[in-house]
Amino acid sequence: MKDDYLWDPSGTPDADIQRLERLLGRLRTTRPAPPISDTVRRTNTVRLKADSTYDADTTYDKATTPVGWRTVRFLAPSLAAAAAIIVMVALTWKSTGTGASWSVASLSGTPRIGAGTLTGEGRLAVGQTLVTDATSQARLHVSTIGEVTVDPDTRVRLVETRDGRHRLALDRGTLRAVITAPPGQFIVSTPSAEATDLGCAYTLHVDEDGAGLLSVAQGWVALESNGLESFVPAGASCRTDPARGPGTPRYDDGAEALLNALDELDYGGDTARRAAALRFVLDHPDTSAVTLWHLVPRVGEADRGAVVDALADQLAMPRGVTREAILRLDRAALDAWWNELGLGDANWWRQWKRPMPASR
After folding, report:
1. pTM here?
2. pLDDT tens digits, residue range 177-228?
3. Which domains does the chain have, with CATH numbers?
4. Distance (Å, rounded) from C-alpha 208 to C-alpha 336?
5. For the chain, how far is it from start to end, CA to CA, in angstroms?
6. How would DSSP label each residue in 243-307?
């Protein structure tokens, strides 16, 4: 915290102090302060003696009597107001994290936070933007749950940070996240999808046109846009597009021709080329069950049966799940088939979509 701004508002603004000023500003009084030498007077039927005792042998007249400003009766309302302010600030501080900001360190060059440059360490407050140029790099501490390395030529903004929910916006560039927390606590918004951490390490890149690429090193990441979901496991990647959202996850060690065919299938505009790409994907030996499971609801109804059969050749349907239920995209049937992959229960990794309760 910058002490110079605390005592001299003409100094460099401090985000934490400014936030407290906004919170407490509505409690300020507009009445002028009385001179400190004034005393508070009251009308009584007796005049108190200097030792504050009552003498039964003395006659007392009505008079105005000075009352010390340090008496409990005088201070009680002020003390109560001060206590209320302290409680309010403490609760707000707890619900939003340490000043609703993250610590950030410059790893190279001179990253910028807003209009200022970052040298050494500083803090990124909610609403502020961190920008790196071609020669700078920075590291963000995501509260107490992990860290994010911001690579050169990147623009990120801190959107939200509180107990159980932390959110960044990646406008362009590349970040690398390492998170050790329950699923759903760390989210990165991009122009084409939201990436929700399911306890993992990953790299996320966004081009100038908003298209993105997610590559997962450990754990899982969920990509979602307008109801379209992609669940990307370790060792796999997934592209995103501002118009069509997340594509089909694929393992990085697959043949280049297979990866190109999936890109054509996801984002190609020519109907004949997309049909040829689907046939290539279904016949290729490197096509994984994870990829095929994601393709089931993404292809047209006329092609869905072929995708279901290709998946069934790799992974038998569980007891109680029928081909007809899969063809009509029954969610329970699809999730039950997913569970057969041995990559985690579908009901578990869908928990991240539930609203997080606010801190108390």
Report:
1. 0.70
2. 999 988 889 999 999 999 998 878 999 999 999 999 999 999 989 999 988 8
3. 101-247 (2.60.120.1440), 255-360 (no CATH)
4. 39
5. 26
6. TTEE---EETTS-HHHHHHHHHHHH---HHHHHHHHHHHHH-TT--HHHHHHHTTTS-HHHHHHH
Own/partner contacts of 48-53, CB < 8 Å, gap of 24 or more, are none
Write the CA distances from 337 to 300, 331, 349, integer angstroms: 20, 10, 14
- In degrees, rounded to 5, the angle at the alpha carbon of residue 263 between the alpha carbons of residues 262 and 265 is 60
CA angle (197, 202, 203) in 5-degree steps: 120
- Complete DSSP assignment for 134-166: TT-EEEEEETTTEEEEE-SSEEEEEEEEETTEE
Say how far apart CA 281 and CA 273 lie, in whole Å.
12
Collapsing DSSP to helix, strand or coil, 213 comes out as strand
The one-letter code for the residue type at 71 is T
List beta partners, residue 106: 138
pLDDT tens per residue, range 152-165: 999 999 999 998 89
Q: Give the pLDDT means over successive 10-residue stretches in the chain (360 positions).
A: 51 58 54 49 40 42 42 46 44 46 95 92 96 97 94 97 93 96 90 90 96 94 90 94 95 95 94 96 96 96 97 95 96 92 71 47
Non-local (6+) Cβ contacts of 75 within 8 A are 69
347 phi and psi angles, rounded to 5 deg:
-65, -30
Distance CA 169, CA 178 (A): 16
